[in-house]
Write a structure and sequence with these properties.
The protein is an alpha/beta fold and 282 residues long. It is 39% helix and 21% strand.
């Protein structure tokens, strides 16, 4: 997908101002920025859910806002998990809820059942145990996982998620992030808005930083999340590992080079500083 000079406003206020970006196949892209900077609006626009004042969004080279564009293609290829997906649950059973989005692709009954089973199992459920339960009877975290499963069941080529980690316990969160990484290995593009900088540091390959409706940072995880000072300019802190490294450098424990953004990288840098060894010799 390619976004070209996208401008979105509500009334007299501009929420997105001339935003341009490209998402390649199999990319895991994190979007960060303080509340109100335009992250959610950008996702909704990319999903075709908002009217825009100016600009284009191209899916496989076609403008999704063109009158000739088939919106069914957008629904098949792009999936979005909203910030509070559990509020979207409405069906009598979990199985019906998760399978609802498959109506656009019209699979056979057997294929639909297998898609629903697969999606629920990816979110840590036993299909047989949960399929006949009412989604409204589940806990908050379970509702969120079921709602996410409903989007996964459609097997989109571009999966966009708005703060999907809220409400997930640490184990479920890590399993979900590893699952998303696995999807990128299959060519699925993942775009995730999150305030959890450490989660992005561990799993995203590219980070986009936003401020006041503009993209002000766009680079590798190492470049963006390792620069705590730059992140502060958009109202965020870097990963905990980067902050720790910054403190150690200020006190002369580490040299002034390198930008570790995970604790594994920080550990290796500390060992290297203490032993004088590098790379495989550490």
């Amino acid at each position: 997908m390619e976004v070209r000079k996208l401008t979105v406003g509500y009334g007299a206020a501009w929420v997105l101002d001339q935003v341009s970006l490209q998402i390649g196949a199999g990319e895991f892209v994190g979007i960060v920025g303080c509340t109100g900077c335009g992250k959610t609006t950008l996702l909704k626009a990319m999903a075709g859910l908002l009217e825009v004042q100016d600009g284009e969004i191209l899916l496989d080279g076609e403008n999704i806002f063109s009158r000739r564009f088939d919106r069914a293609v957008l629904r098949r290829k792009v999936g979005m998990v909203f910030q509070y997906p559990e509020y979207q649950l409405f069906a009598q059973t979990v199985e019906k809820d998760v399978g609802f989005g498959l109506k656009y692709s019209r699979p056979s009954r057997e294929e639909k059942q297998e898609r629903v089973r697969w999606a629920l199992e990816q979110m840590g459920f036993s299909y047989e145990e949960i399929k006949d339960q009412s989604p409204l009877s589940l806990s908050g975290g379970e509702k969120r996982r079921v709602a996410i499963a409903g989007v996964l069941a459609t097997k989109p080529e571009l999966l966009m998620l708005d703060e999907p980690l809220a409400g997930l316990d640490p184990m479920a969160r890590e399993m979900f992030l590893e699952f998303l990484e696995g999807l990128t290995g299959q060519g699925v593009s993942v775009v995730m808005v999150s305030h959890n900088v450490d989660a992005l540091a561990q799993h995203a390959a590219r980070i986009i930083g936003m401020k006041q409706g503009k993209i002000v940072m766009d680079g590798s995880c190492q470049e963006v999340l390792g620069d705590s000072r730059a992140l502060r300019t958009i109202g965020l802190l870097g990963s905990e590992a980067a902050q720790t490294a910054e403190l150690l450098r200020a006190n002369g424990v580490l040299p002034g080079s390198g930008l570790p953004v995970t604790y594994e990288a920080l550990r290796d840098e500390i060992i290297g500083a203490l032993t004088g060894e590098k790379g495989e010799n550490r």
